[in-house]
Each structure stands twice: as structure tokens, then as C-alpha cells.
Amino acid sequence: MKPRPPTMREKKRYLLARIEPRGLQVDPKELYYAVLESLTSLYGDSVSSQAQPAVISAAGGYAIIRCTRGYEDLLRTALTMVTGVNEVRLVLRSCATSGTIHSLKTRIAAAPSIPAPDPAGLEIGGKCFDAYHYGSEKVDLIEKGFKNQELLFLTQTDLEEF
């Protein structure tokens, strides 16, 4: 049987989503169920069946998700509502939309890899802290030692001093 010509095929779109926290391994089948649940709860069964979401791959901190053309905005919105997979907390950040998987894979390969953070010593109020800087996203301060640790909240002026 001959394949359908390209003009008669149903058009698909592929979304690239970054899985955070980084380094988290997610089962593609479980991720599919989480995305489908989010899409169904937001837009109903009719729209989710017309969108036909499918998780193509979920590896290396990224997920490639397929949908029918015209529904990529709805799927992108549903991705923001996913908060966990199998009781593991995670966030899906939409990075790109494309008509081919190949272009998304080249985008993944071109993305800069973020190394594990190196702690930098810091002294605030007479206490020593290890500061872990994660790109431009956030800074974690962990008090050295293991007894009497307390929460530390920094303001913008505190950050400008360092």
C-alpha cells in the first residue's frame, strides 16, 4: 500500500519542554498521563482527543511532545499546569515549537549544559554559608554545620552587597 502524499497527511507539531529540576529522570508513559490529565482537566475530553498529545521522548532533562497542528498553544498551557509525575514534583517549561523532531533535537544538542554548582563560601552575620549559584535562576544558601540551622531570607540590597 502506498503512503499518503504529504498534502493529505494530518499536520503535527512538536513541543520541546525542559524538565525541572534538572537531572530528573521521568518515565515517558507516566509523563504522558500527567500531560493528558492536565489537558483534560483544563479543556475537557473533546479538545484533548482532538489535540492527540503524545510524549515522543523524555530524556536528558527535556521532553518532546507531539500534538495536532492548531492545538500547540492549548498544549503549552496544559504543560504549565503539570506539577508532578508519580508523586515526584516537577515543572515543564516550554522551550520551542517545531514541525519536525529533528530541529528540536538539534536545539537540545546546542543548548548549553549547566554543570553542577560549586559552593562558594560566604559569611553573613557571623555565620558561614555555602552559596550554590544555579545559572541566572537562583542562589541557595546552606549554613555550614548541621546543628541549629535557620532560614535565611535575602533582600535585593543584600544581594547587591555580595
Describe the structure in your own words.
By secondary structure, the chain is of the alpha+beta class. The protein folds into 2 domains: 6-110, Ribonuclease P, Pop5 subunit (Alpha-Beta Plaits); 120-161, no CATH class. It has 5 helices and 9 strands. Helix 1 (28-43) packs across helix 2 and helix 1 crosses helix 3. The radius of gyration is 21 Å and the shape is elongated. The mean pLDDT is 84.
Which CATH architecture of the largest domain would you pick? 2-Layer Sandwich
Q: What name does the CATH topology of the largest domain carry?
A: Alpha-Beta Plaits
Helix/strand order, N-terminal first: EHHEEHEEEHEEEH
Structural class: alpha+beta
CATH superfamily (homologous) name of the largest domain: Ribonuclease P, Pop5 subunit
- How many helices? The count is 5
Mean pLDDT score, rounded? Answer: 84
Shape, please? elongated
* Sheet with the most strands, sense and barrel status: 4 strands, antiparallel
Assembly level: single chain
Cα distance, first to last residue? 68 Å
Placed side by side, the strands forming the largest sheet appear as 2-3-1-6
Unreliably modeled segments: none
Overall tally of domains:
2
The amount of helix comes to 25-40%
- Count of extended strands: 9
Please compute the radius of gyration using only Cα atoms: 21 Å
| CATH top level class name of the largest domain | Alpha Beta
Bin the strand percentage: 25-35%
